[in-house]
Design brief:
heterodimer, A: mainly alpha, MetI-like fold, two-stranded antiparallel sheet, B: alpha/beta, 4-stranded mixed sheet, 52% helix, periplasm (chain B), molecular carrier activity (chain B), Thiosulph/SO4-bd (chain B), Sulfate transport system substrate-binding protein (chain B), transport (chain B)
Chain lengths: 293, 332
């Protein structure tokens, strides 16, 4: 696109491409963005690994093989292994319902799915304490039947599931909406059952978006601090997740160990990022192929 | 379906992990307050050894730490603590009153008001004491930044507050004490939720000129960071801080851990327990151990809460309850 600008006094005319800024502006903006990234992203990331290995590899290994740390890692993985599949099922079901059907209360459902994003994580944790805590609504009944939810693994899982609900559903809804219902309608007309339609048409169409959402959901499930902190009870070796363990170690002046465990979390984030990029790349390929067909 | 089978496997696997970790050993949960981390780390190991030698039974003691009030709240909400070792009697009173997990006369069940070790409140300043802080008066001066935690959530913070109040009362008279304490809190740039949070703010983040804290916490910071960065200042008057301990009856009866929980607390009074407490800068109550570590603890003129404030219940009602003196001072 070009714009013709005429200066009335000099009568000079020149053409400037609307998308082209002077080179110093471009350089300045790129430089600014890079400086920002370096300062707020790369330097902290490097410092995590630097601090973690500052006292040597022995200290690092000792920190991450410490029984409390191992238990924190196990718990974090356990929680993610429960929360992500649950949200996978819920996310697909919600997105399927919202994107493919019209029903009353649809907008309400969309708003509800977004709720965990807009509520502070601490509040997300507290609502479970209010419901399941000993002084809460269900607390006395649970205590009588010796069912532990708060300050135990189920509470941590619940809080994590709550804060990670939107990730998969939010990823799938626009994707499914864009794809429309034509292919499904064709399948149904050709005599496929609902389940067949879902498995053979819908699921293959959304698989990359689904994976992408699952990865984001997993990253958040492992990294969640606020909500989990409220319901955990902070029992070492039992209800401490990795982020909580990092805080404990830090508060104990045990900085090398705190950063060692933090570096594991950072590593997890980096792997997630790599996977995400890979999937985006595959996704793009997938789309161009479909376009060619 | 691949996804469903994966789901089933993962749920099965995780439930196995969870049930496995529950069944493993005889455990005891000690819910404690912030600065006792290092103390109980050593004490728990010593007790496990003692119990193993005496009863041929393996015991694993689990720890939870945080601001004392917050920890009490967790126990009230259902955190299954076999024993609580909190910063002040009032937090255990709350557990007795609100959740009724132990009788209200719990403090009479163990000797010395259920307080196996005591501490007091002193100051930590930066090396060379650049602001020339010598006593409580200096904390109320303008231009001095004071670090202390939030009395609403932290037990240590309440001891800090009460020590300052009593000093103001003795120095300036009954009706000036509130203004005096108010002037100190005007100098507080950040109220952390627990004593350890405040220590980190002062020591690690470099905020503030003086930290009001437990004696044991101040000595620990000196040990961790070296005396070339910080020094302690001993005020002319301070409070005997009594962090009490109690068995949580309803929990131990349900879990069948009463015997071991009671032995655990008794062990705090033993010579070995007292020695470990002294090593971690808590003032031992046993005369014998106190004498052995006498040179470690500075001599301070001390008062106790019963004489000065008529006990914790009174102090709480007048100073820390909603709308009481602290709220009036801080919200002003």
């Amino acid at each position: 696109m070009t714009t013709t600008i005429t200066f009335p006094l000099s009568g000079k005319t020149f053409q400037q491409r609307a998308t082209q800024e002077p080179s110093w502006v471009r350089r300045f903006l790129i430089g600014l963005a890079l400086a920002f990234l370096t300062l707020f992203l790369f330097v902290p990331l490097i410092s995590v690994f630097y601090e973690a290995f500052k006292k040597g590899v022995d200290v690092y290994l000792a920190a991450i093989t410490d029984p409390d740390a191992v238990s924190a890692i196990k718990l974090t993985l356990t929680v993610a292994a429960i929360a992500v599949p649950l949200n996978l099922v819920f996310g697909i079901a919600a997105a399927w319902a919202i994107a493919k059907f019209e029903f009353r209360g649809k907008n309400l459902l969309i708003t509800l799915i977004d709720l965990p994003f807009s509520v502070s994580p601490v509040v997300s944790g507290l609502i479970y304490v209010l419901v399941f805590g000993l002084q809460g609504w269900l607390g006395p009944w649970l205590a009588e039947h010796d069912i532990k939810i708060i300050f135990a693994v189920p509470g941590i899982v619940l809080a994590t599931v709550f804060v990670t609900v939107p990730f998969i559903a939010r990823e799938l809804i626009p994707l499914m909406q864009a794809q429309g219902t034509e292919e499904e309608e064709a399948a149904v007309v050709l005599g496929a059952s609902g389940w067949q339609t879902f498995c053979k048409i819908t699921l293959p169409n959304i698989k990359w978006g689904l994976l992408y959402g699952a990865i984001l959901c997993n990253a958040r499930a492992m990294g969640e601090f606020g909500a989990v902190s409220v319901v955990s009870g902070h029992i070492r070796g039992s209800t401490n997740t990795m982020p909580l363990h990092v805080e404990i170690l830090y508060n104990e002046y045990n900085f090398a160990a705190a950063f060692a465990v933090a570096s594991l979390l950072a590593l997890l984030a980096l792997v997630t990022l790599a996977l995400k990029t890979l999937i985006e790349f595959r996704n793009k390929q997938h789309q161009t192929q479909r376009g060619d067909e | 379906m691949k996804i469903t089978s994966w789901l089933a496997t993962s749920i099965l696997a995780t439930s196995l992990i969870i049930s496995g970790s529950v069944l493993a050993e005889k455990t005891l949960l000690n819910v404690s307050y912030d600065p006792t981390r290092e103390l109980y780390q050593e004490f728990n190991a010593a007790f496990a050894k003692y119990w193993q030698a005496k009863n041929h039974e393996k015991v694993v003691i689990r720890q939870s730490h945080g601001g004392s009030g917050k920890q009490a709240r967790s126990v009230i909400d259902g955190l299954e603590a076999d024993v609580v070792t909190l910063a002040l009697a009032n937090d255990i009173n709350a557990i007795a009153e609100i959740a009724k997990l132990l009788p209200e006369n719990w403090q009479q069940r163990l000797s010395l008001n259920s307080t196996p070790y005591t501490s007091t409140i002193i100051f930590l300043v930066r090396k060379g004491n650049p602001k020339g802080i010598k006593d409580w008066d200096d904390l109320a001066r303008s231009g001095v930044a004071v670090i202390t935690p939030n009395p609403k959530t932290s037990g240590g913070a309440q001891w800090n507050y009460l020590a300052a109040w009593e000093y103001g009362k003795q120095r300036y008279g009954e009706d000036k004490a509130k203004d005096f304490v108010g002037n100190i809190y005007k100098n507080v740039p950040v109220l952390d939720s627990g004593a350890r949070g405040s220590t980190t703010t002062f020591v690690e983040r470099g905020v503030g000129d003086v930290l009001i804290t437990w004696e044991n916490e101040a000595f620990l910071a000196l040990k961790e960071y070296g005396s070339e960065k910080f020094e302690t200042v001993i005020p002319s008057l301070s409070i005997v801080a009594e962090p009490p301990v109690a068995v949580v009856d309803k929990v131990v009866d349900k879990r069948g851990t009463r015997q071991i929980a009671e032995a655990y607390l008794q062990f705090l009074y033993s010579e070995e327990g007292q020695e470990i407490a002294a090593k971690h800068f808590y003032r031992p109550t046993s005369a014998k151990i106190a004498e052995r570590y006498a040179q470690k603890f500075p001599k301070i003129e001390l008062f106790n809460i019963d004489d000065a404030f008529g006990g914790w219940k009174n102090a709480h009602k007048i100073h820390f309850a909603d709308g009481a003196h602290f709220d009036q001072i801080y919200l002003k």
